[in-house]
Queue: 2 jobs
Job 1
Amino acid sequence: MAQYFLGVDGGQSSTTALVADETGQVLGMGRGGPCNHVSAEEARAKFNAAIGGCVAQALEAAGLSDDTEFEGAVLGFSGGPADKETLVHELFTIRHALVTNDALIALVGATAGAPGVITIAGTGSISYGRNADGKVARVGGWGYVFGDEGGGFDLTRQALRAALRQEEGWGPETMLYSLLLEATGASSANDLLHRCYTPAMPRPKIAALSQVVERAAAAGDLIAGDIMDVAAQQLASLAIAARRMIFADGVPARISYIGGVFRSERIRARFETLVRAQAGNEVAPPRYGPAAGAVIEALRIAGVDAELRGAPEEK
């Protein structure tokens, strides 16, 4: 009988599911809404709808029924696995299951299952690695209060700080001031500051304003350029720290990256330069996205030796 495997990438903005068979051939894909929080009853319902609907789409695309049993399934969530494992088993029948964080599946997708390290810089930031012996390393991922250096939220935070300093007369002038007000319609930097403490400005929306920093830097603003360069330095430091925890000096290590912040050519190029400066590091873009990584890991935990085929490669 054919065996089927499920990989799910559940994030703060969307969910992606892939279904594959025992040969590693991807049969179907589905997409749904966010599913990272499940603490309240309404959130649980949204979680079930996002995951259930997303997997149902993938099964339909694969020509399989909704009650298909999975030999292996890995589901990675940006909010971590807490409170989600029971819900997953209520939704699906799975022989070998792993409910984990999004860092693991992002790493596996980026390296197509090979050892390495990935740095993720979206709203927040984290580095995660695994070596050939299965030893893992995690660096960063402390959240927006104590960490997330180099992530989108932190880029916006640094930009707003610079704008506030200009407005209050104790910092240099920067294009960030006018660009932030233009992007948000705020009357002042102080007005924008107070908006960021309200539900109208959730963290992903604040993080999206980080594009303003790139615009200002591209126009020659020195303050914005410094913010971007520091972000690249911090992200490289996360990657190098994770690498040192699990790879010996001189042992080749593949380091990859993913997330909206790395769409910035300036940050990506500086990150690559800094990481390559450490002996033995190979820097490469991710081969596959996190959902494909989840499928690869699902095959692995079920003991199936198959190379993934038919998955969309990461752009």
Job 2
Amino acid sequence: MIGTYGGYSGVVRRASFEHFACSVAQALEVIGDWWSLLIVRDIFFGVNRFDDIQRRLGIPRNTLTDRLEWLCSHGVLTKVPYGDSPNRFAYRLTEKGRDLQPVLLAIMAWGDKWGATAGNPPLQPTDPNGEPVELRIVNARTGRRVAGDKIRLVPTDGATDPNMVPPRTNIKSQ
């Protein structure tokens, strides 16, 4: 399905996943372009004013305006006025936005392993004491780590579209 993105005119079009009964598709519907995740990353860094985000990313102003409006309209960010002008805003992560932190850390780890930064990562996530941290997949009941090749994706009652679930209930991650 093709639709316009946020407030975009008919010139910029992208696929819409809003009708897909798939958790990945629903996440991509909101944050599925590279500018959105880079904006969220910068706001995690504490860069939260329009001009500062625009300068750091080199993103066209109209594109940044559209992405910020999109992220605010989907509850990822909220606008907070600052300064003397009623037209100056800082952007803050909502709970929904803060929940993207593990996603960004996972993308960062993948980029550090497979991207241009392989072997020389620019950042190291740490705890407040400076000790390195990493994302892990753990058993929800026991807390024990689970190897990626042991993960199974099992349909639930929410799996209403057979095209959005693995063809067999015993599919392993590859």
